[in-house]
């Protein structure tokens, strides 16, 4: 019972801003270990649910970069409201024995880059398209400023192809990445990794 109380205390400290992130090891133990992010790889997501595609993507990206991988779950995200405490614990339980996870309250990658300076973020092409959409930043200037912040924090992206809008997209199919910022985004070759199913589709299949 004490263990749960300790974990809940960590969560309260994260929500109140006392902590930037919480590290949860593969045994499910919460701690506030100070991690040097320069040699790390971060796969962010809502993991609702965690599926084989996430695990395969983590393995491929780890092999490509030779960096230590972490899953990252934010208690907030850019579109949806804060996740409930019960839901957070439920999602974290999926990772037991499968890898380290960090929990943050950073909604967007500009904020994440301040916390995880030097890290490489692993994302899908659908999210890459959103990251480069000026609508989320109040226009082109805001987008430019955001991407420069990510660059200045020595972060960059590894991008996996994804099936969306009835078509399989790789990074080269995305029309909205400016030449100026293309260097921040490296492609994971399709022959190494291809995923045609999303968490949403898996949730729907599980309900049937």
TrEMBL record:
Pfam families: CTP_transf_like. Gene3D superfamilies: HUPs (3.40.50.620). Residues 43-203 form the Cytidyltransferase-like domain. SUPFAM superfamilies: Nucleotidylyl transferase (SSF52374). InterPro entries: Cyt_trans-like (IPR004821), Rossmann-like_a/b/a_fold (IPR014729). This is Cytidyltransferase-like domain-containing protein. It comes from Photorhabdus kayaii.
């Amino acid at each position: 019972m004490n263990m749960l109380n300790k974990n809940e205390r960590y969560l309260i400290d994260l929500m109140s801003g006392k902590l930037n992130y919480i590290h949860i090891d593969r045994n499910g133990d919460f701690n506030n270990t100070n991690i040097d992010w320069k040699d790390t790889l971060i796969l962010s997501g809502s993991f609702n649910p965690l599926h084989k595609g996430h695990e395969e993507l983590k393995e491929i990206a780890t092999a490509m970069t030779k960096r230590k991988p972490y899953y990252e779950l934010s208690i907030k995200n850019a579109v949806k409201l804060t996740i409930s405490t019960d839901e957070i614990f439920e999602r974290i339980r999926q990772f037991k024995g499968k890898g380290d996870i960090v929990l943050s309250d950073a909604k967007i990658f500009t904020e994440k880059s301040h916390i995880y300076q030097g890290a490489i973020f692993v994302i899908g092409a659908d999210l890459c398209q959103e990251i480069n959409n000026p609508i989320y930043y109040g226009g082109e200037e805001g987008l430019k400023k955001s991407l420069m912040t990510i660059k200045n924090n020595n972060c960059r992206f590894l991008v996996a192809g994804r099936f969306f809008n009835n078509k399989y997209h790789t990074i080269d199919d995305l029309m909205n990445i400016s030449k100026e910022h293309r260097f921040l985004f490296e492609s994971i070759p399709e022959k190494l990794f291809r995923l045609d199913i999303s968490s949403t589709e898996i949730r729907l299949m599980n309900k049937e």
